[in-house]
Amino acid sequence: MKWTNSEDIGIALAEKFPGVDPLGLRFTDLRERVLTLEGFDDDPKTSNESKLEAIQMAWYEEFKDAQ
Predict the structure, then answer these.
(1) How far is CA 17 from CA 30, 45, 46, in A?
(2) Is residue 35 part of a domain?
(3) Crossing angle, helix 27-35 and helix 6-16, to 10 degrees?
(4) What gap in Å lies between CA 23 and CA 19, rounded to an integer?
(5) Is residue 59 part of a domain?
(6) In-domain check, residue 1
(7) Number of domains into which the chain is organized
(8) For residue range 27-63, what is the model confidence (pLDDT) as tens digits?
């Protein structure tokens, strides 16, 4: 997975961290969680606010659906 695969990352985060509301995380914490995902193989230095926001929103959609 790459930073631009926001939907795939959002699903993976929802599975790895069930019950965590992604809107309550700072982007620095979100970034660290993304880096722990199995299958994530992008350059950590290329993350930015817009990519993290897209990931956060994709994760939030999964989180809402699970509630």
Answers:
(1) 11, 23, 23
(2) yes
(3) 90
(4) 12
(5) yes
(6) no
(7) 1
(8) 999 999 999 999 999 999 999 999 999 999 999 999 9
